[in-house]
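Hi W., the guanosine-5'-triphosphate complex you wanted:
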Amino acid sequence: MTRAGSTGGRGAGKDAAAYRAGFGCFVGRPNAGKSTLTNAIVGQKIAITSSKPQTTRHVIRAVLHRPDSQLVLVDTPGLHRPRTLLGERLNDLVRTTWSEVDVIGLCIPADEPVGRGDRFITGELAELKAAVVAVVTKTDLVDKARLAEQLVAVSELADFAAVVPVSAVSGHQVDTLVDVLTGYLPASPQLYPDDMLTDEPEQVLVAELIREAALEGVRDELPHSIAVVVEEMIPEGEIIKIYADVYVERSSQKAIVIGARASRLKDVGTRARREIEQLLGTRVYLDLHVRVAKEWQRDPKQLRRLGF
Ligand SMILES: Nc1nc2c(ncn2[C@@H]2O[C@H](COP(=O)(O)OP(=O)(O)OP(=O)(O)O)[C@@H](O)[C@H]2O)c(=O)[nH]1
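Structure:
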């Protein structure tokens, strides 16, 4: 196991010779804690987390600024066995992302045995140019003895550039992980301006927040059947008016999302609006419409329209 050294030292400032910049991403089986870790690192809610697998669909970049480095995090969905066109597109997206980054954090939860899924992903990473850092996540869920066992088990999976235990919930080792990842970035000029946190269009972030709110409480009934498109965001004085469509696959699902006397949709709107106001830092008027797009997961035209 190696520990990356400092990334140019204090006082290096933006000295061109010492500056590092590049791309990184977290991979791992569903529920490994990738989105939560990204959020903990960036300190702002920009990726979607949930207790159900495979909810992260969009590639979301978070730009992490340090005096002497810039780490651009790319968030990928989980790799899984494709059953629909959507599944295939997601896997293509994951592989493309992997081939373009400088450092990959392979997330393996501390509280679950190393399994087939972890071995599969490790094998897939073997041929890439990127440095692979094993990240043992959710360390707050296990005691020291169990963590030690897991670190050994993970180290035996492959010859990783480093193995770093971390807890996104307690914050333990989150900074250390960033130091380690940054250590594997190439010498490079700054890639993005100082004030940039993410280059994902605001509309996509807003759509993700609405989708998350719409899934709340109905994930078992509608696991992958909801897509959201933000049609318009219009600033009007102090507020932003947002018009969005929530797509489901069947009218029975439409009824679930709307709820009796539209009570559920109202809750969804309230919850989403609060999150969006936090994201945008301004008051928001949110207009939601629920529409049926039959079998959108299997239809290439619809998928393109819905942003996949
Ligand atoms: N206790 C604890 N729970 C965590 C930690 N990190 C993530 N979790 C939980 O683990 C679950 C999955 O986390 P996500 O971040 O959504 O996992 P993911 O790998 O992005 O999942 P997919 O989007 O399905 O690929 C959620 O319920 C999180 O709250 C952690 O450090 N400690």
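The chain has two domains: 20-183, 202-305.

W.
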